[in-house]
Design brief:
By secondary structure, this protein is of the alpha+beta class. The protein has helices at residues 7-20, 25-28, 45-49, 55-63, 68-90, 92-109, 113-119, 126-138, 143-156, 161-171, 177-188, 201-207, 372-376, 380-390, 394-423; strands spanning 247-251, 269-273, 288-303, 319-330, 339-344, 352-355, 359-362. It has 15 helices and 7 strands. The strands form 2 sheets. It has a 5-stranded antiparallel sheet. A two-stranded parallel sheet has the order 1-2. Helix 5 packs across helix 11. The longest helix has 30 residues, at 394-423.
Amino acid sequence: MIFEASRAKALNQLNNFVNNNLGEYSKLRNFDFGPEKRSNISCLSPYITHGIINEQEVIQKALSKFSFSKNEKFIQEVLWRTYWKGWLELRPNVWADYLIELNQIKNEFKDNKDYIAAIEGKTKVDCFNEWVKELKENNYLHNHTRMWFASIWIFTLELPWQLGAEFFMQHLYDGDAASNTLGWRWVAGVQTQGKHYLASEWNIKKFTNNRFQNIKLNENAPPKVSEKSYQIIKQDCNNPQKIENKNLLIFENNLSFEITDFKENNFKKIYLVSNKNKNRAIKLSEKLVKSKPAEIGIMDINFSNEKDEDKLFSKFPDKIKSLQWHSYEVQGIENNKDITLLASSPITKYQIFKYQNHAYGIQFHIEIKDTTVNEWGCVPEYKKALEDQLGIGALEKFDQSAKDNMKDMNNYSTILYNNFKKLL
């Protein structure tokens, strides 16, 4: 299974599922036929989690195909996450307590052999081991399998549910704090007190189409017990009608910018919240690879001869200065006849490329201000990459170099902008 961070891919997945498989969803949804056979479920949750599509448009698309009665089970499943988010939002102490408990338990179990065997997929339960491998390789598990996994973790392997919830969040592309935490609590029996979920051998065999044998589980374990209860905490949350001079908070794993345009919004500041969990990083394309070395600094861009015939860049000189601050680049598109290479740098071949006459890819920055370097330097990952590449104290030199070349780069930006308007 491959999840590509593109709205086009997400819509294609949605359309294919609704048109070809939605009609059988209620009957087949509980079957896990393996990671290469997922046509019986939508596999849309990673796209929804990352903001590429939303629940409303998924439901609207489904209702355009079938009536509500035919869609009811699918719609319920789509809205479970929305429900869990609202539930946890009203009881924030559930999350706070989970984090406190997790921190304590992690210290207790850091050298525990059963815990290490579980996360490495080396237990005595073969199906569980296979699911660990699948989770790490695909960053996804079927929903029914997640329930079996959690039950085996808690009641057969006798490991704390808090560690299992963390393990899921470390790997699932669609990992969601509310649905994941509360789902594990529900399996354990502490979400709905006294009601737990026990995986059974017959159920796993039936709904995996007998892919697994010799499944020895604890099928008679009592539910876990928690003496804590949580009251609803009502909070006054009023979305401001006027957002001028407000701050915008963005998580870097939110990929909704294909359909979100903030050009008309005069935000005071935009804050990027970095997610350091590399296991859940979505790979955008096989053509996108890590640069060796990273390209950071004020650097030369050399145009190809094709530049002279291009409507955007024909007025540019053959060589310009640009601001670079990136660690990835596009490679491996040499054989695509629809792509024209317009400019390169000594490190990165595809600094500017064009797809037919429809789209451009530009690697560098010329649209800078006198505050650009210092503002970007406030992002810890950016600053670290800069200092790893150019040494401690490089920020001040980089900032000065940018200011020295800012006038020329702003002139190039103006040319580019004016040429672009002519194409519209």
